[in-house]
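Bug #77: duplicate submission created two jobs. Keeping one. Sequence:
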Amino acid sequence: MPTSAPPSNARERQKRERRLALIEAAQRLVGERGLDDVTVEEISAAAGLSTRTFFNYFDSKDDAVLGIQEIELDAEVRAQFVSGGPSGRLMTDLQALVAGFLKDAAPNVEQVERAMRLLASEPRLMQRHVAWHQRVAGEFEELLAERRTARPSPVDDDTIGMVAGLLMRSSALAWARSGYEGDAVAHLPEAVAQLRLLLDD
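Kept job's structure:
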């Protein structure tokens, strides 16, 4: 007799648990032996998962050590922004877009701290970290180019990109200062308010 699929929230919980287990195993093994002396197979085995499952979550062991998570921007958020919305005011719309980028951020505090320590000791990890940031920046540039077709702005893309990056970083820092209370998006209004205060000073 066929069984029904588990509820969506149960599937998401399982995915999160597997992802965290892989990060935990990768960081522990690399911390003990160094990046070059650890394999994906060993990480998978230590997490109690298959190598095939590993590659459902990460492209490489470097990504697992850093806990890199590809950002999947909601299709509706993307469509609204590139069409000139949701409000038609760039700063307000930028805030909605940044919220879309931040919504899936859900770090494990201990793993984030270990990743930062390993980042300092393994130069190759820094290259991977920078490459991830460049991919996010590239996606953002594509969104801006599409939006300009529907709603031109006198503000140049570099300035918009710097403001978006500032809002993301400020929100993440405020979230960290709170002990990761709630989620990163909840701290975005604080970041926007601080930026407005600076501009009005």
